[in-house]
TrEMBL record:
Taxonomic lineage of the native organism: Eukaryota, Metazoa, Ecdysozoa, Arthropoda, Hexapoda
Annotated Major facilitator superfamily (MFS) profile domain residues: 43-487
Main localization category: membrane
CDD domains: MFS_GLUT_Class1_2_like (cd17357)
Gene3D superfamilies in the cross-refs: MFS general substrate transporter like domains (1.20.1250.20)
Organism: Drosophila gunungcola
UniProt keyword list: Glycoprotein, Membrane, Transmembrane, Transmembrane helix, Transport
Protein name listed in UniProt: Major facilitator superfamily (MFS) profile domain-containing protein
Topology versus the membrane: Multi-pass membrane protein
A GO CC annotation given for this chain: membrane
MF term (GO), any: hexose transmembrane transporter activity
Transmembrane segments: 38-61, 91-115, 122-145, 151-172, 184-202, 214-233, 301-322, 342-360, 367-389, 395-421, 433-453, 459-479
Family the entry assigns: Belongs to the major facilitator superfamily. Sugar transporter (TC 2.A.1.1) family.
Domain of life: Eukaryota
Amino acid sequence: MASKGQQAEAQQLYPQPSRVELLTAQTETNQKPRWSSLLLLVALATTFGGAVSTGYCIGVINAPSKLMKVWCNQTIHETYGSNLGKSGLDLLWSCIVSVFLVGGAIGSLGGAGAANKFGRKACFLICGGLFTVGAVLFFFCRAAGSVEMLMIGRFVVGLASGLVTATQPMYLSEVAPLALRGTLGVFCAVGVTGGVVVGQVFTLADVFGTEELWHYALAAYMLLIIVCYLPSYKFPESPKFLYIVKGNRAAAKRELQRLRGKNADELIAQEIAEMEAETNAKVQTSSFCDVLRDPRLTLPLIIVCCFHGGQQLSGINAIFYYSVSIFEKAGLSNENAQWANLGAGCLNLTISLLGPWLMACRNRRTLMMFSCALCSVFLFTLSFVLFYIDQVSWFAIACIVCIMGYIFFFQFGLGPIPYFIGSELFEVAPRSVAMSMGSLASWSCNFIIGISFPLLQNAWGAFVFLPFSITCVLLFLLTKFYLPETRGRDPSEVAPLVSKGFRSKVK
């Protein structure tokens, strides 16, 4: 943190307008988004190098699972002289899949400390190093005949993915001008969604989804890492991190000048005044314990964690898990059902591409409530038609409609908003902790779904989707009563609206 002398000096250099004047000037200046070439480079490189790679590692493991299980069994026999039974092989495969989620939870939990100690840009570079180590382990595990290399690789890319989801939305929101913060905030969600689809494509039998080439599929994302990290020496550090966390005013101003381009002196002066106001604000807590103990941060922290966890508990991963069997019940062959599942993933990606436009033009509260309400309806309807699917012939088609409808409306709010809402509710000092806690909730709930869904499916049958529908209803109520509108507002203006916990009047 900056000393009082430094703060006084900065106030002399950059006299502060009142809070009302500052926010009014920001609104007027940011009516037209300002995309500089450096800002566009950072947005695309971090999205393709970080978020797409994360989604790729999520989606690449499903299709070649049978081939990889056979290889694991053969490798265990050759290495240790023993054969795994069906239950033992299923347990080993569950470990290979779930260790990625464990790594994601650990990586997201460490994101707060890493972001404040090393910086937002450095976290992105660390992610690249971890992804590279994982790709090397994936590529050589088959030649080395080592299941251990495969498992360690999954854990390492899990660490990288958790760090990406905890820090990338924060990094992009802090390098963006106010008018573009919502737009850049959804880049991570779009990238993860796109990465899942790319992973599904690369594991098709016509590409790398064969007995001899599956390890190429696991490591193919390394091409993205190379391309996106080559220009990383040009990337700026977050000006807010430099100014507020490190107290380096001069470096922060230099980075702002690089990001905003020419003829942006007025905008830069306003952003410096905004950062100075935040530096002098009362909320300067940055450690986990400080954030958890501060009653002013309780409600926004609950919102961030519930949005992240609720995104997973709303059933999106379960829907993709179940969609192939639904398509088969509708009369498709297994191969055609796989292609239909890929089509569902492409729909998910296509709608997610509307995210930047939606976030720039529509309010967060409206989009989130609209998305939660319709997703809840489609999930409830899916449970109903699944229960009677054998009695009514056209219910198979209705199941497909419910799945596609759920995916369509999921990307209006439930998909993108949880990734960046923490950046709009929290000021810079506690932001990294909030983003890490939200990311941890997401990875933990993802792990819970992966472990419990097959068991609940066997026990409850079609009604397994009802808890997901209830989750959407609860998120709708949380949004309606406690989420303030954040579009076009600086976090310093939003934070007081939720500072009184559940007694806050967000409207």
